[in-house]
Predict the 3D structure of the following.
Amino acid sequence: MGNSTLLPIATLLIAAGLAGWLARPFADCRAFGEEPAVVSAVAIDQQHVQLTPVVTQNRGSLVIAGGGALPKVIYEKFLELGGGLEGNLVIVPTASMIADAPDILSRLPIWRELHPGQITVLHAETREQSCEEAFCRPLETATAVWFIGGDQNLIAERYLGTPVEPALHRVLERGGVIGGTSAGAAIMSRVMIAGGRTTPLLATGLGFLPETIVDQHFIKRNRKDRLHAALKLHPHLVGVGIDEDTAVVCHPDGLEVIGNSSVLLCLGATSNRAEITETIATGQKFDLRPWAIAASGRARHGAYSIAGTRPVPNLLKGAVVIAGPRPPKEAVQEFLTAAGGKDANLVLVSETKETAESENRLREYFAEMGAENLMVCSATDSDTMSDPKTAETFARAQGVWFVGAEEERLLDLVVRSSLRKVVGEVLARGGAIGGSSAGATIHGDGMVRRKSAASANTVPANSHESGLGLLTGLVIDQCVEDEATDTMATALRDRFPNCIGLGLKESAAVVVRGHTMHVVGSEPVSVYNNARSGEVEQADQKIPAGQTYDFVARRVVTAAIESTR
C-alpha cells in the first residue's frame, strides 16, 4: 500500500490508560523536534501547575515495559487488556531497524504465537505518509497498540503532531490499551528522554502517561542519575524508571508492576527538598496520584525559596471565600453574591459525616438568604459522585463550597474526581469557590502538617502538605491557640519560604478577589510573613474584620473590597 506497511493478520488491542494530555485537533502536521523549553520552576508553576496536577484516569490501560527479554506474562497481560483473541491488535515497529522489512511479522514470533488472528503492522516510512488520511484508519478500530523498541526519536519524528497522535489517544479514551518496550516506553511521557548517558537529551513524547518522565533499561544500565538530571529541569514531574524484563501496568484504578525486576519512582531534588526514590517490586501495586501531588507542590515551593521570588494570590476572575469550621453568615452571603445571587447554581460538597453540623448550618444560611438552586453532594456516597446528573450539575455550577474535617481525605477526593477541574472552571466563569475548615485549607499552596520531622521527606508527607495552589503563595491553617504562631513560623521557614501564612480561627473568614483579601464576620485573621527579601515586615499581623489586606503590598490598605469587584 504505497510506502505504508499494512499487513492484515488479526484483531487489534489498543493502547489505552492514563492519557491526561488529550491531543488537539490537527488541521495539518506541525514541525517535529521542538524540545520542551527548559524553564525555571517559577515559569512552570505559572504555566502548568496553578492547580495541582494529577494523573487523569481514562477507561483504558497502559503496559510500559523497560526493554530486555520480556517474560511472556507481560505480553499476555497486554493482550488481555486489549480484548484477547477478539481484540484488534496494531504493531508499530517504526523505532526498530527492521521496521522496513517486508517480512517483519516473521521476526516477531511472540505475536504470532499469542495472537494467531489478524494483526496490523502500522509503519510510516516518512512523516508525510503519517499525515495521509488513510494511514490512521487501522487505529480507528484498534483495541490494542504496541510500540516495539529501538530509537524513540524515530517514533516522535514520524508521528508527533500528526493525525496519528490524537488517533492513539482516542484508543485510550475508548478503553483500549497502549503498550511498548524500551523506546516504546520512552515515548509514553510528554517530556521524553531521547538519549544521553548521565546527561539526558530531552525531547517531546506522545504523553500517554501524564505528569511523568519515563526511563527504561533503568537498573540494568544504571540510569538513576540520568533520570534525576531530567527531573532537575522538570521538578513538577514524577520519574518512573522501569528495569529490563519488567513492566508497569497502568489501570484506571491504579498501577502494578509485573515481570522479573522492579520499578523506581523518583522525585527530583529542589532548592529546599532532597530527592526521593522508592522501589516498587514486581507484584506490588501503587498509586501515582500522591507522587504527582507531591511533585507539583515541591516544584512550587522550591521555586518560591529562590531569593526575591514572592508569589501571591492573584485571581483573574471570580472570588474565593475561605473560613474556619463555623463560617459567619457574612461569608456565606459574600459567596452567594460572588456566585451570581439567589438564582445561581450552587453545590455544597460535604466530605464526611463528621461535617454534618457544618453542612446543616450552611444549608440553613443558604435557605435564609433565598438561594433557589442548591445541590448538596455527599462525597462519601459513591453513587452520588458517579451519577451523570451530578456531573451535569457541576458543569453548570456558579458556586461550589467545600466542607471537610480532614485535609488528606478532602484533598484526595478533589484530585481523584472531576472536582479539581470544576474548581478551575467555576473561577474561569467568574463564579465563586468557598470552603470551611479543611475545605478552606486545601485551596492554598501549602498546608501546615503537624507531623514529626522524621516523616518530612516521605511522599505522604510531601503530598499532604501541598494544597491545590488555587491561592498561590498562601499557606492556610486553622488556628490552634498557643500553637499556631510557632507552628506556622516553622512551616514558613522550613517548607514554604517567601509564602504568606494565613491563620483562621473558628468563626473567621476572608474573601479573596484579585490580590486582595477582605476580612468578614467579627473575628480577625492572622497573617504571617517570612519573606527572605531583606525587607522589614511585621512577622505576625492581626487583620481586623472589615479590613482589606493587599498580598502584593503585604499590608492593610484603605481601599474597600467593593473597589475590586
Notes: Residues 337 and 400 are 13 Å apart (CA to CA). Residues 1-57, 533-537, 559-565 have pLDDT under 50 and may be disordered. The longest strand covers residues 471-478.
